[in-house]
Write a structure and sequence with these properties.
single chain, 441 residues, alpha+beta, Amidase signature (AS) enzymes, two-stranded antiparallel ribbon, 17% strand
Length: 441
């Protein structure tokens, strides 16, 4: 297919399906068709993609899922991540729905409407990058861009049944993206197959002085080593906290991945719960700090789902945040010691499959808990210490919803994780087909 054919096919799929899914907030048909007509070259030549609407996309306001930013002037330039994908030949076809200011796990956005799960439109897509995952799962684009603070790539990847990559903190430039929590924010891709995921990740790499938190100074391509396999790697399951409340589907998924990857041992990270608590405090305090001017002047324009959390975060004492950073550092050191022996650790991505839209509580193993924060039970501790993670999708029996598993690596070892992901894909265990309701059309 030519670039023009691919973009036209994507725009047609969006026109036919997005009325149900609500993944896109902006469709950039004119821009995309003009770029496709120029027949761009590169490793991603002609591939259409969407970007979470907190990335600057030249010509439209960067809403970050909010009402407050709808009247903002259009972005004058693309975010670094968007620009790098287009430099590799890809074509941005639109901006994608999300939780307001990335503070959520469900993409039940009260301004733009909820994004619906392509496997069952009565259920959530996950968040905060819900539109990014759903657009890929519904076959509207082959890959997309999202962000992950506490699990916002891995949660929707798990619930929508697609591949997701949260790179090491500091690996990919965040310049031109609206930050939620600078100390925790990561940028990463979603895709339907591991080869595309690796190719997109490679296109995103590279130093960028516009992001002072970018710590990677070299490019380490993942795509060339994708078929090297996992011989000689040490792989284990994470127990303890990561064996907490979860559905039978989540337990089966972890066991199946462990079997294929040869993970015979279960190991404990004792600081997981404390590290998650630290991430909660840092998220609330820093997230509110970024939004203080709007909280003071335009409070009523925030959606109710995050208004109270931002207000509470704005009142957290500095001493608490300082202590949270200390606990975070202790958790990081403890995990470093654990990873001295293990190349890859396996854990659930979400405790459940996608829940119905509007659900507030869930009960697992006899424990009743609020649904939204519980979706990040097993992603949040890993985000807090900046480790790279691949979310691997496991389709369930016919008619059942997919669920994901985390492959967790040492810092800067994305290529190794993608090799393990490719092993799972080739074994037929982990795959991300277009959701059945959309595949035929």
């Amino acid at each position: 297919m030519s670039a023009l054919d691919r973009v036209r096919a994507a725009l047609d799929a969006i026109a036919r399906h997005d009325g149900v899914i609500n993944a896109f907030t902006d469709v950039l048909a004119e821009r995309a068709l003009a770029r496709a007509a120029a027949n761009p070259a590169g490793p991603l030549a002609g591939q259409p993609f969407g970007a979470k609407n907190l990335f600057d996309i030249r010509g439209i306001p960067t809403r970050a899922g909010s009402r407050i930013r709808r009247s903002a002037p259009p972005a004058e330039a693309d975010a670094t991540a968007v620009a790098r994908l287009e430099a590799a030949g890809a074509i941005c076809v639109g901006a994608l729905n999300m939780d307001e200011f990335a503070y959520g796990f469900t993409t039940e956005n009260s301004h733009d409407g909820p994004t619906r799960n392509p496997h069952d439109p009565t259920r959530i897509a996950g968040g905060s990058s819900g539109g990014s995952a759903a657009a890929v799962a519904a076959g509207m684009v082959p890959f997309s861009l999202g962000t992950d603070t506490n699990g916002s790539i891995r949660v929707p990847a798990s619930l929508c049944g697609v591949w997701g990559l949260k790179p090491t903190y500091g690996r990919i430039s965040r310049a031109g993206a609206t930050l939620f929590v600078a100390a925790l924010d990561h940028i990463g891709p979603f895709a339907r197959d591991v080869t595309t995921l690796a190719a997109v990740y490679d296109a995103l790499q590279g130093p960028d002085p516009r992001d002072p938190a970018q710590l990677a100074t070299t490019v380490e391509p993942a795509l060339p080593s994708l078929e090297e396999g996992i011989a000689g790697l040490s792989i284990a399951r994470l127990g303890g906290w990561f064996e907490g409340p979860q559905s039978p589907a989540a337990r089966r998924a972890v066991a199946a991945v462990a079997e294929v990857l040869g993970a015979r041992e279960t190991v404990i990270w004792p600081e997981a719960e404390a590290t998650r608590a630290a991430a909660y405090l840092i998220t609330a305090a820093e997230g509110a700090g970024f939004r203080l001017p709007e909280l003071r002047s335009r409070l009523e324009e925030f959606e109710p789902l995050i208004q109270d959390r931002l207000l509470a975060g704005a009142m957290i004492p500095a001493a608490w945040v300082f202590q949270a950073q200390r606990v975070r550092a202790i958790g990081q050191a403890s995990m470093r010691a654990l990873q001295a022996k293990w190349d890859i650790l396996i854990a659930p991505a979400t405790p459940i499959v996608a829940s119905p839209i509007g659900q507030e509580m869930l009960t697992l193993d006899g424990v009743s808990m609020p649904l939204r924060p519980s979706l990040g039970l097993y992603t949040q501790p890993i985000s807090a210490i900046g480790l790279p993670v691949v979310a691997a999708p496991l389709p369930q029996a016919e008619g059942a919803l997919p669920i994901g598993v985390q492959l967790i690596g040492r810092p800067w070892q994305e290529a190794l994780l993608l090799r393990a992901a490719r092993v799972l894909e080739k074994a037929g265990l982990c795959r991300a087909p277009v959701a059945p309701a959309f595949a035929a059309s």
